[in-house]
């Protein structure tokens, strides 16, 4: 008998029919003998409806404390509906708001952080054979004010509850059936991963794979809560995200290929190659609240050097202005910008124990005559910047080169 | 500086515009230097929308505990919106759910009763100059379960808070500008009462005058909370409901004329005039869960008597069946039913100190040749049953006879 925390998002509980389906699913687990805690979000659309009301009342400036009082009602409705749907099916169930559980948070309204969870009530209910339905996304501060955790907060609630209860697994139900080796829209032979580590998942997520919120993966990693991503309305084992790196002897070197088109590249050419030049260039950029991702400084030539970095495309125009000002101050030769780039990354903990992974990546790209513009590496990731038009080609080539392709599909 | 509890119902907070109007009104009171606690209901329609969802999920059998979790969100949204609207106007305000105040109730979900109110938090906020906005209709039981008080519960919350805080007045805002001497649709010269006692108000309410919920009037009387009925969106002093009977020397004998068409009359004729006969007749009626209002037993004649009583019209058919069974068991002569009746009552604490009020009533009706079918009296009320078609005539005649008519209206 396992203790499982199951989290269903707004789309999974978006209609009366879907709530009934979720109840059926929970019932099956319960009948298998598992202890179940369910975390739910507001029905899809409800949070936005409430925020709209608040904006109408306040000319777009709702007070954060009162906004939390209001939007927390979205999840409160869902927990009651799901508990009713379970009880109607003969499954003993009880619902709790964040305050009722006592999910204690700090008082940063609309983006609070969980400090502590009181598990007394939930444990007593589980011991009495009940399914416990908990409102995601919300908590209460020391003074008893209602707080919310911000976007993706229901995932965090699920993971935090699983950690507090030392649950065997935290299952995140979503609209995909797991984490894939890469985006199946780009590589039809992409495969669902049985397993991936927290570290890899974080790299995949930060590189644009949107299955899970980064914060909840970090949280799960920190407390070593096994996390499983599953499809809400299809059967299947999903993808398990754990600490464990070593269980399988046949673990692939690379777990997945991530990519994004969200970045732009800026180059400042012919700057004096003196100590502190990197700070002189990047200081004003971060001073303008622009985040820099990859950075490359060329080998100096005639006492001058070139300096290249990437920013989010939304920040491109601002960054260009800042950089042109810096260039004229430093007497640089020129500033060049390029938005037609893409970033492709290979991610895998297997890299740690396998040499030559990067060169195998470069070889695969060279075979397709794709020019690499920038390179950046971490312990479990190699990223390259290439011309955007080669993105799909690069991802497919790498997917094949690292033996991630699924066997040719049977016609069913 | 007074401490005032103001209660606004679902219609008064039914739209964003109306919530803004309520905020304006509260702001004016606050600027006058009064301490204000506002109790609000759910936006009109919201509670029914939620109940519909629950019914859809459960095939019309929602679990009471979970229903309370859900429908209590209606008021929770309104308190946040009103607090936001006040803050936007520069009025310091804070919202509380029933649980946050700690309005402690029993655990009778969907019809809970208030046991105790913790005033610590509210007093601290008032002392800090804040308007406190409290969710009506809801509370929390000893175990921390969310409860609701049933229909009209927001009035009860208002009165209970006023009692706990020893407020100077509890103002109930509604869609009428006060309590009238009788229904102005029947008597255009009906007048708004400046003042009425709790007892009178209870009689008026139980006789069909729907301005206030009986339960909240009882509560206000018990704790001697001055209650004022006012119009939400019109200026005016409304009607004050208090204990005080004696303040004015010129208090009228009769405060109002109440009436209803909700009853039906049943007569069993020729029953043996023996001890216990009333119980033999009415026992089976109340055994069928039918409430009996007025009862008259005729003087016996030839050792038999006639027995007449009234029930709600909805219970008429059931009562008739029960009575016919009883009649055949008792060997009664016949059973007669009549649904074309109306009840008219004069209500006033002035009756206590004035003799001859009843005969003045009968005289007024006799002048209009209206036949009285039944009479029932209490300390502050005389009720008569008459043929329904004379109802309006009777009410107008009594309104004039007891000098309740307003001066002839000026053309404005």
From TrEMBL, chains A, B:
Domain ACT: 266-340, 346-412
InterPro entries found in the cross-reference section: AceGlu_kinase-like_sf, ACT-like_dom_sf, ACT_Aspartokinase, ACT_dom, AKii-LysC-BS, Asp/Glu/Uridylate_kinase, Asp_kin_monofn, Asp_kinase
EC number in record: 2.7.2.4
Protein source organism: Pseudomonas matsuisoli
Nucleotidyltransferase among keywords: no
Any Gene Ontology biological process: homoserine biosynthetic process
Similarity-based family: Belongs to the aspartokinase family.
Keyword terms of this UniProt record: Amino-acid biosynthesis, ATP-binding, Kinase, Lysine biosynthesis, Nucleotide-binding, Transferase
Gene3D superfamilies hit by this protein: Acetylglutamate kinase-like, VC0802-like
Protein name from the UniProt record: Aspartokinase
Entries under Pfam families matching the protein: AA_kinase, ACT, ACT_9
Coiled coil: none
Pathway the protein takes part in: Amino-acid biosynthesis; L-threonine biosynthesis; L-threonine from L-aspartate: step 1/5; Amino-acid biosynthesis; L-methionine biosynthesis via de novo pathway; L-homoserine from L-aspartate: step 1/3; Amino-acid biosynthesis; L-lysine biosynthesis via DAP pathway; (S)-tetrahydrodipicolinate from L-aspartate: step 1/4
Any Gene Ontology CC annotation: cytosol
Record field: catalytic activity: L-aspartate + ATP = 4-phospho-L-aspartate + ADP
Residues where ATP binds: 7-10, 174-175, 180, 185, 210-211
Main enzyme class: transferase
Sites where the protein binds substrate: 47, 75
PROSITE patterns cross-referenced by the UniProt entry: ACT, ASPARTOKINASE
Entry keyword annotation includes ATP-binding: yes
GO MF term (any one): aspartate kinase activity
């Amino acid at each position: 008998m396992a203790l499982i925390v199951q989290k269903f998002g707004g789309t999974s509980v978006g209609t009366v029919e879907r709530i009934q389906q979720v109840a059926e699913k929970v019932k099956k687990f319960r009948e298998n003998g598992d202890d179940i805690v369910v975390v739910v979000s507001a029905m899809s659309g409800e949070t936005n409806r409430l925020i709209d009301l608040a904006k109408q009342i306040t000319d777009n400036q709702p007070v954060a404390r009162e906004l939390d009082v209001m939007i927390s009602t979205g999840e409160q409705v869902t927990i009651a509906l799901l508990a009713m749907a379970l009880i109607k099916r003969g499954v003993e169930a009880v619902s709790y708001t964040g305050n009722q559980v006592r999910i204690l948070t700090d008082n940063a309204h609309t983006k609070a952080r969980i400090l502590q969870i009181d598990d007394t009530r939930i444990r007593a209910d589980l011991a009495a054979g009940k399914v416990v339905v908990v409102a995601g996304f919300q908590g209460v501060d020391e003074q008893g004010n209602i707080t919310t955790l911000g976007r993706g907060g229901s995932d965090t609630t699920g993971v935090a509850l699983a950690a507090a209860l030392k649950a065997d697994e935290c299952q995140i139900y979503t609209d995909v059936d797991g984490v894939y080796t890469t985006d199946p829209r780009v590589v039809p032979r992409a495969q669902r991963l049985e397993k991936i580590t927290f570290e890899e998942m974080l790299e995949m997520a930060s590189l644009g794979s949107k299955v899970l919120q980064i914060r909840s993966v970090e949280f799960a990693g920190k407390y070593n809560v096994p996390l499983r991503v599953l499809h809400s309305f299809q059967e299947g084992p999903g993808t398990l995200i754990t600490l464990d790196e070593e269980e399988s002897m046949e673990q692939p070197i690379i777990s997945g290929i991530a990519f994004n088109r969200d970045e732009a590249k800026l180059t400042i050419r012919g700057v004096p190659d003196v100590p502190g030049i990197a700070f002189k260039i990047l200081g004003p950029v971060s001073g303008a609240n622009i985040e820099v991702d990859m950075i490359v400084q060329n080998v100096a030539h005639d006492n001058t050097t070139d300096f290249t970095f990437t920013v989010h495309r939304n920040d491109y125009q601002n960054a260009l202005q800042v950089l042109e000002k810096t260039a004229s101050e430093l007497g640089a030769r020129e500033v060049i910008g390029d938005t037609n780039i893409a970033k492709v990354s290979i991610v895998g903990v297997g890299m740690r124990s396998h040499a030559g992974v990067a060169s195998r990546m470069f070889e695969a790209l060279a075979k397709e005559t794709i020019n690499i513009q920038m390179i950046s590496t971490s312990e479990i990731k190699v990223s390259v910047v290439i011309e955007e038009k080669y993105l799909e080609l690069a991802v497919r080539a790498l997917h094949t080169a690292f033996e991630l392709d699924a066997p040719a599909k049977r016609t069913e």
